[in-house]
Design a protein that fits this description.
- The structure is a single chain.
- The longest helix has about 55 residues, at about 225-280.
- Helix content is about 65%, strand content about 10%.
- The chain has 2 domains: about 15-330, ABC transporter type 1, transmembrane domain (ABC transporter transmembrane region fold, Up-down Bundle), CATH 1.20.1560.10; about 350-585, Rossmann fold.
- It contains 22 helices and 10 strands.
- The strands form 2 sheets. A 6-stranded mixed β-sheet has the order 6-7-8-3-9-10. It has a 4-stranded antiparallel β-sheet with strand order 2-1-4-5, with no helix packed on it.
- The structure holds thymidine-5'-triphosphate (TTP) and magnesium ion.
Length: about 575
């Protein structure tokens, strides 16, 4: 696969441009239309100074009033045509830019959905978000405006140069000398101002993030009396937004007057040199006016070229970064020849499984564990022992670095992800609920679940008790804009959601840590019949949960050090009885 041979460092100018232009492909009609409009615009723009030349030489100087009106009408006609062409061109090209940007964004979102969990461990959320938002603006700007505007500017400059040289080569040379500086100045300006405006954006982002953090953590801030600290930090961020904005304003103040000044030098040259030529009769007054109007008309195209060069550089840089993610970060690989999971209950096997996080040491160092179909196994171990790590291998949130994980006798890497994840249901340690009605949270994994099954799951998971007391029952909106559930209630909703999903292997990561012991007992009693026929792995720190299990295993030092019936393990003097012995005494 070409994916493996990809090196983001290869994304220099041309490879990136090629990829960008590939996103244009569907837009060639609009693009061609844009370029035709640009050509027409250039032609019409160049016609106007020429008409001014004629009106002066033909009507004004000979004082022929009768010819003024027809010339005026002609100039108005050309100007209107130019207005119209410019108008439709902008509609067309803006669409291309917006569509290319949208396509790029879709590609990124699509990739985000497929990236393995490890990707999100190593990329700050802010970066992931801005790559698909702010980072794409230069691309839209360049594709939607820069390319066609650049072509139009180039045509304009060439056309004007040809006309000027044809009229008077020496004057063209003399007045033209200053003009390239307009372009250079515009480029220099863009080069300085763009990083600053980007930085202003970033600092504003920091400010927003800091404010957001303070708002989300307001409880902590107020509880620990950290208001002054937060205020200082906020002040620091606000100050740097101000400082960079001032720098940006300074750069603008330094360059913008220059951009107006340089063209006047060219005009001065025309007045000086051209004025003499007119006086000596070597040039007509009309030609003199042609020079001045054409030079004035060149100012913007020259500035635009300098500006576009810089926008292009930024677009290529930002597109390069996006393509590097799109092509350089492999999604979790899907098997080339996927195997089907057998029907019915599934067994689970870990075969000398090693697992390590890219940032840390090896967490699992050879776990061997075979779980029969329909068995309930409690995975125990002190905090940080690797329970979550072990369970996360089943839905392939991470892959084992060594060894194999098998579900129904099939290596999880040989099953299509969608199949695997519908067979393996998961309740994570800190479950996330969506900001939608409770009903939709419950059926998130299986929207067409029959309502009686949902109710049964809610009964088993202890949701029914509190759901009926919510303001709108099962239709109550959950989350920031609705009702906030307690930690234990959230866990129970997550458990019910996993039961509704109808997975054949249930992976429960400390599902009742936030539930009081009495409720837990009730739940545990309800749970057994609800998971009948399913293979269940429960990571837990609670003896009352372990007691529903047919079997308990203890993780320590990256291996399974104990394995047996919970009652037997408790009677022994291994790690298990150390972990849970106190609870028995307490109870
Ligand atoms: P866990 O597998 O999270 O340990 P645990 O689930 O047994 O602990 P708890 O009872 O508190 O839930 O972590 C094992 C080690 O792996 C620990 O040192 C932290 C590390 N780790 C990471 O580096 N990255 C991760 O994403 C996770 C989950 C753990
Ligand atoms: Mg854990």
């Amino acid at each position: 696969m070409s994916r493996n041979r990809f090196d983001p460092a290869d994304l220099t100018l041309w490879p990136t441009m090629r990829r960008l232009l590939r996103l244009w492909r569907g837009e060639w009609r609009l693009a061609a239309f844009g370029f035709v409009c640009a050509l027409a615009f250039t032609g019409l723009s160049l016609t106007i100074p020429k008409l001014i030349q004629y009106v002066i030489d033909d009507a004004v100087v000979p004082r022929d009033r009768g010819k003024l009106l027809p010339y005026l009408a002609l100039i108005l006609l050309v100007a209107s045509a130019r207005f119209f062409v410019n108008y439709v061109r902008r509609f067309a090209t803006a669409r291309i830019g917006i569509r290319v940007e949208a396509r790029m964004r879709e590609l990124l979102y699509d990739a985000y959905l497929r990236y393995p969990r490890a990707f999100y461990d190593h990329h700050p959320t802010g970066q992931v978000l801005s790559r698909a938002t702010n980072d794409l603006y230069p691309i839209r700007y360049f594709i939607g405006w820069g390319l066609v505007q650049g072509a139009q500017s180039a045509m304009m400059i060439v056309g004007a140069a040809v006309i000027l040289v044809a009229v008077s080569p020496p004057l063209a040379l003399a007045s033209g000398v200053a003009m390239p500086f307009v372009g250079l100045l515009a480029y220099a300006f863009a080069r300085r101002v763009h990083p600053l405006s980007r930085e202003v954006q970033e600092r504003k982002g920091d400010l927003t993030e800091a404010t957001g953090e303070a708002v989300v953590g307001m409880e902590m801030v107020q509880a620990f009396g950290r208001e002054d600290d937060v205020q200082t930090r906020f002040g620091g961020h606000a100050g740097s937004v101000r400082d960079v904005s001032v720098q940006q304003a300074d750069v603008e103040a330094r360059f913008l007057p220059g951009l107006i000044f340089v063209p006047t030098l060219a005009i001065a040259t025309v007045l000086l040199v051209g004025g003499r030529q007119v006086a000596r009769g070597e040039m007509t007054s009309g030609e003199f006016a042609l020079f001045i109007t054409l030079l004035l008309q060149l100012v913007w195209p020259l500035e635009a070229l300098g500006w576009i060069t810089n926008v292009g550089q930024r677009a290529v840089a930002s597109a390069g970064r996006s393509f590097a993610w799109l092509e350089g970060i492999p999604a979790l690989p899907e098997p080339e020849n996927p195997r089907r999971l057998p029907d019915g209950p599934l067994d689970v096997r870990f075969e000398s499984v090693h697992a390590r996080y890219p940032t840390g040491g090896t967490v699992l160092k050879g776990v061997d564990l075979a779980i029969e179909r329909g068995q309930i196994v409690a995975v125990c171990g002190s905090t940080g022992a690797g329970k979550t790590t072990l369970l996360n291998l089943l839905p392939r949130f991470y892959d084992a670095t060594e060894g194999r994980v098998l579900v129904g006798g099939v290596d999880v890497r040989d099953v299509r992800l969608a199949d695997l994840r519908s067979a393996v249901g998961l309740v994570t340690q800190r479950p996330i609920l969506f900001s939608v009605p409770l009903r939709e949270n419950l059926t998130a994994a299986r929207p067409d679940a029959p309502w009686h099954e949902v109710l049964a799951a809610c009964h088993a998971a202890g949701v029914s008790g509190f759901a009926e007391e919510l303001p709108d029952g099962y239709d109550t909106l959950i989350g920031e804009r609705g009702v906030n559930l307690s930690g234990g209630q959230r866990q129970r909703v997550a458990l019910a959601r996993a039961l509704v999903a109808g997975a054949r292997v249930l992976v429960l990561d400390d599902p009742m840590s936030a539930v009081d012991t009495q409720t837990e007992r009730l739940l545990v009693d309800n749970l057994r019949p609800a998971v009948e026929g399913k293979t269940v792995l429960i990571a837990t720190q609670r003896l009352s949960t372990v007691e529903v299990a047919d079997r308990a295993v203890v993780l320590d030092g990256g291996r399974i050090v104990q394995d047996g019936r919970p009652g037997d393990l408790l009677a022994g003097d291994g790690l298990f009885s150390k972990l849970f012995g106190d609870e028995v005494v307490a109870a």
